[in-house]
Design goal:
mainly beta, three-stranded antiparallel sheet, four-stranded antiparallel sheet, Ubiquitin Ligase Nedd4, Chain: W, about 0% helix, 2 domains, binds zinc ion, N-terminal domain of TfIIb
């Protein structure tokens, strides 16, 4: 929650403007683009969240795998090549039901 720097009112999010707007005095503040964390919020669970725009779910293959969050048995999956010492690729899954995203190392 953020407060207006001018009058101290609670700022509301204006999705069209992509800004925080004060309903009292009209002050606009830019939304800080923070790193998006997974639902767990912990640093170790930091997962690349791919927006629906970037990830075309219609062409993304589905696989039968159990969602750890809701128990659904179908998920979209895609691979991300990680440029590390081990040159391993990471497999990402996104639940078709609850949109929970998790990863597995191959
Ligand atoms: Zn204000
Ligand atoms: Zn799920």
């Amino acid at each position: 929650m953020k407060f207006c720097s001018r009058c101290g009112s609670i700022l509301t999010i204006d999705r069209e403007k992509q800004a925080l707007v004060c309903p009292k005095c009209g002050t606009e503040e830019m939304i800080e683009k923070d790193v998006i964390y997974s639902k767990h919020g912990a640093e170790k669970d930091k997962v690349v969240i791919i927006g629906k725009k970037e990830l075309n779910l219609r062409t993304t293959p589905q696989v039968k795998i159990k969602c750890p969050m809701c128990g659904n048995s179908m998920a979209y999956w895609w691979m991300v090549q990680t440029r590390g010492i081990d040159e391993s690729s990471t497999q990402f899954y996104r639940c078709t039901k609850c949109d929970y995203t998790w990863r597995e190392y191959s």
